[in-house]
Amino acid sequence: MASAAYYRKEAERARQAAVNSTDPETVLRWLRIAKEYTALANAMEDEAAPPGPPPSGPMQQQPMQQQQSKIEPEDKT
Q1: pLDDT on residue 8
Q2: Residues 44, 46, 47, 48: is their CA dihedral positive or negative?
Q3: How many whole angstroms separate alpha carbon 40 and alpha carbon 46?
Q4: CB–CB of 19/28 below 8 Å?
Q5: pTM
Q6: What percent of the chain has pLDDT over 70?
Q7: Structural domain harbouring 42
Q8: What is the total count of domains within the chain?
Q9: Does residue 24 form part of some domain?
Q10: Does a structural domain hold residue 41?
Q11: In a domain, 14, yes or no
Q12: In three state form, how does the secondary structure of 11-75 look?
């Protein structure tokens, strides 16, 4: 299986190919390929990273909102 470093090297190679290309459409293709290789490398690194620390303290709960009843004004006549 390829490593994140491999995909980063391939991304750099694709960027260099874009620099060396003269056709605008080809340049865009190489840059798109470089972007995809970089995304693959990032995804691999994210999967390999250890999970972060658990949240500290108890979980917070959102306060419940109570429905207010309509109060009719008293008729003082």
Answers
A1: 96
A2: positive
A3: 10
A4: no
A5: 0.61
A6: 61
A7: 4-48
A8: 1
A9: yes
A10: yes
A11: yes
A12: HHHHHHHHHHCCCHHHHHHHHHHHHHHHHHHHHHHHHHCCCCCCCCCCCCCCCCCCCCCCCCCCC
